[in-house]
Amino acid sequence: MSRSLPDKLAVPELDLLSPLLNQDGDSWTAHFQGLTLRTALQPIYSISHKRIVGYEALIRAFDPDNSAVLPLHLFQLPSSDAENLLLDRLCRYLHIRNYSDVQDQLNWLFLNVSPQAVTSGSRADSFFGQLLKKTGLPPHRIVMEIVEQPTDDAEKLRETVAYYKRLGCLTAIDDFGAGHSNFERIWNLSPDIVKLDRTLLTRATEDHKARQILNGIVSLLHQSGCLVLLEGVETREQALIAIDGGVDFVQGYYFQTPSTDLEGLIHAPANFEDLLQEYKSRNQVTFDPTRQLIDFFSPYFRAAIDKLGHGANMHQACLELANHGAVSRCYLVDDQGVQIADTLVSDTGARHSDPRFKPLESTSSADWFRQQYLRQALAQPENLHVTSPYLCVTGAYMCVTLSQGYYHEGELRVLCCDILANPT
């Protein structure tokens, strides 16, 4: 039954919230301002493990006629910081009470907590610790999600996240990549998991460049010591983008919709075998051109290096190579990474030249030692090396670079060739 709340609420403790919960069959419900609240869970899958590793808890509200109320409208009901804090804690209490009864003794429960609620509560408040103790749910099975948005008190947020970590919970940043998200918060809070906002995935679905950015963000987050979860996966193509992007976990309607049938969710497998097999097939045929590039251009490089060894200049030696429609330029580098003579720009390279980047065109005596392709060629001469696509500094276009070291009169040199990554 519904219970009224006090007009003024200090810090809502466990004893105050307990009467607001009722057992309804196999699950628990809560009451807030005439609405009935229920727990819905959405599975989170590990791509590598090919199985569920956690569930995000979501609140579902219903009016007295059992009609659904949007979560947005529910969270607009509190008229004070105290009521906002109460609703936040009531939801978490309900979720933990329900999850404690689910026959799953292994996986994580992801709980949302708003920055407003975090910064309103006292760091010394023992509510959450008491809640875990009362329900018997181990803290290491809880992931506290902090929604990615500005907060009036960054220090308070940092202290509260540290409190959850001391309890033994994992922490996560939610909606990273949208709005006010940035790496500053990653560095300040050191979360265990970062949830990428679905807008990153939407853009990656529509734009290849955005897909490369997504992959780069995942790589940076991994280097920061965070596991990465991509939410909002709704199609098979998006699932394949997630796999290719290197994320650790996925969540979304493509795999499973949120459900209040909590016991039924633990028997909701996803068919990762087919997805991974399709990814492997695509990767071998389409996404990994390394072997094809090396096989195709090796004869060109051998011919050019042979001519250079017999005294030909760059134009004479590399003319056939430069005439290939995808090649933008060829250049020669010494064993210190410093370019020898001017770059041989192909007709293709000249057509793609952008006058806005003219200050970058001349590369005489440029030092390329920082480039991985140069160091690889110096370390393994006689082998042809190829990079992944990257932004070429000489013209701000995407390219891949082929490089091969060889000896000329006892000195090690490297012949390099840039190929347009997206030739037209």
TrEMBL record:
Organism: Marinobacter qingdaonensis
Lineage start: Bacteria, Pseudomonadati, Pseudomonadota, Gammaproteobacteria, Pseudomonadales
Entry protein name: EAL domain-containing protein
CDD domains, sorted: EAL (cd01948)
Domain EAL: 20-272
A Pfam family recorded for this sequence: EAL
Record-linked InterPro entries: Cyclic-di-GMP_PDE-like, EAL_dom, EAL_sf, Sensor-like_sf
